[in-house]
Amino acid sequence: MSNAGVKILVVDDEPPIRKLLRVGLGTQDYTIIEAPAAKPALVIAKAEKPDLILLDLGLPDMAGHDLLAAWRAEGLSVPVIILSSRTDEAGIVKALELGADDYVTKPFGMNELIARIRTALRHRLQQQGEKPVFQTGELSVDLVKRIVRLAGQEVKLSPKEYDILRALVQHAGKVLTHRFLLEQVWGGGADVQYLRVYVRQLRQKIEKTPDEPQYITTETGVGYRLREPD
Predict the structure, then answer these.
(1) Cβ 121 vs Cβ 52: under 8 Å
(2) Please, what is the end-to-end C-alpha distance for the chain in angstroms?
(3) Sequence-ordered list of residues with C-beta below 8 angstroms from that of 79, at least 6 positions apart, any chain
(4) In the predicted model, what is the mean pLDDT of the chain?
(5) Which residues are 80's β-sheet partners?
(6) Cα(230)–Cα(227) distance, integer angstroms
(7) d(CA 142, CA 3)
(8) DSSP code of 144?
(9) Cα–Cα distance between 203 and 123 in angstroms, integer?
(10) Which residue among 20, 153, 167, 201 is least packed, with the fewest CB closer than 10 Å?
(11) If DSSP codes are grouped into helix, strand and coil, which group holds residue 126?
């Protein structure tokens, strides 16, 4: 699929980072728009209507979280991917809970970032037409019949295990925070330890090597991510 015409707004106060993104993403035919701070980003987002935003949390004139919250309050629904320092787990979780779609940590690999961008854009296009059968590797999930198979063999899951897997399937490729999963499965209020126990049980059933998972990966201090569909 061609990326021509897809506009990405880069909001970062570091010129070397903006140059890296301009050059790297330009090779993928994305159109790159730049903003060095939050205030110009607010104006540019309204004028240019980007298809996706890359947002650094450490801006000079406004916290990235506040900018993100302002955009979401205004009804801006385009995907937002956070650019964050590797140690800022709390900042990442807060951004995801404010409505960010994903994140990459600095220093990041361009291939990783491009994969995150493609996933976020794909989710935006598929929001209106979710496929009834999800397939990744040897794992398949029939969301209509609630049947899970691994290498063609049906896997029996408890209701809570299935609910966790279904939430991951519906957002495959994206990281889901602990809080989001707890709200989806338990309605909030449950301890994160319950989630860890059920994820461990789920991995025992769908992973060939549960300690080295291929499907459900851990985002340390943040949450879990399910491998993208084939």
Answers:
(1) yes
(2) 15
(3) 51, 52, 53, 101, 102, 120, 121, 123, 124
(4) 91
(5) 53
(6) 9
(7) 31
(8) T
(9) 24
(10) 153
(11) helix
Give the three-state DSSP class for 69: helix
pTM for this prediction: 0.83
Rounded to 5°, the CA angle 133-136-140 comes to 40
**67 is written with which tokens?**
């900018």
pLDDT in tens, 2-24: 576 789 999 999 999 999 999 99
**pLDDT tens per residue, range 58-94:** 999 999 999 999 999 999 989 999 998 877 889 999 9
- DSSP secondary-structure letter at 207? -
User: Scanning the structure block, which residue is given the tokens 């493609």?
Assistant: 118
> Is the link from the previous residue into 79 a cis peptide, with omega within 30 of 0?
no
Model confidence pLDDT, tens digit, residues 98-135 = 999 999 998 889 999 999 999 888 876 655 455 678 99
Mean pLDDT of 218-227: 95
Cα separations (Å) of 140 from 19, 21, 150, 212?
41, 35, 6, 19
Query: Residue 117: what residue type?
Result: I
For residues 58 and 68, the answer to whether their CB atoms sit within 8 Å is no
Beta strands in the chain (DSSP E): 7-11, 31-35, 52-56, 80-85, 102-106, 133-136, 139-142, 147-150, 153-155, 175-177, 216-219, 223-226
Structure tokens at 70: 């302002």
Alpha-carbon distance 123 to 79, whole Å? 9
